[in-house]
Design goal:
Number of strands: 6
Helix content: 25-40%
Distance between the termini: 24 Å
Shape: globular
Number of helices: 3
Largest sheet: 6 strands, mixed
Oligomer: single chain
Length: 101
């Protein structure tokens, strides 16, 4: 597992990490209450370059920090912090937005 990182949004700390075992990285927003939020990430061309660095052992996360921040912002904006924990929703980050799978 990748070492988790922190990002600050609206004066709140959010812990996250990303891993990759196939074509698409998996992002995890760590929840202190349980029920971590998992998101499959469809990569842009620039993010693919970062992903290749991760797979080659030259980056500590499978996605760039800025991408992680954008995913967390979408999770917050769309209300998944509260609704995801008790659901079967699959989330995909595609073209800058979260969609349900």
């Amino acid at each position: 597992m990748s070492k988790s990182k922190l990002v600050v949004i609206d004066n709140k700390n959010y812990e996250w990490y990303a891993t990759q075992n196939d074509e698409h990285p998996d992002f995890c927003l760590v929840s202190k209450e349980g029920g971590d939020i998992w998101v499959q990430v469809c990569l842009s061309d620039s993010e693919k370059a970062h992903s290749l660095q991760y797979l080659g052992g030259r980056a500590d996360q499978a996605i760039p920090d800025e991408t992680a921040k954008r995913i967390i912002e979408r999770i917050i904006y769309k209300g998944y912090l509260k609704s995801y924990k008790d659901s079967d929703i699959g989330l995909i980050f595609f073209d800058g937005d979260l969609i349900e799978n």
